[in-house]
Amino acid sequence: MLATSGTLGAGNPLLSLLKVVFVLAVIVVLIVLLIRFLGRRNQSLMSGRSIRTLGAMGLGPNKSVQVIELGSSLYLIGVGENISMMDKITDPAEVALIISAFEDQASAADNFMTPLIGKIRSRLRGDVPSQEIELNETSSFYETLQSKLALAPERKEMLEELLRDDDDRKKESGDL
Q: Span 104-113, mean pLDDT?
């Protein structure tokens, strides 16, 4: 008689697949936690400095727009092959509004796991999510989509008219 040696579930492909999915989920959770830990550590190290990056938006490869707080002013900086200041915001009310918006965005990003965990718990318990909430969200999206689609032909006509006017001006000036 042959002795079976090997890992648990080596003969069952479904069990092996479940083990792989579980290990992958654990790895993803560990990566997310590590990123959050490093982000908080970086924020605590940067909090004592007089210059602070509030946020950035990538615009393309090696190109971005950064919002930098320096003292009581905000600077909008374009970063690419060159670094250039696009705007300086010194109005205290506007500075406070922008900073609060970035802080709200950061706190929302910190709490992204809470709704996900709540949904998983409710599904494990067998709770059925409220259909009314989903319908309201869907109808709002649907209404927005319909309004944008209704405006598309008008925008196309306006664009074509602007292009024709531009071509007519070029013909009149003899540029073509």
A: 65
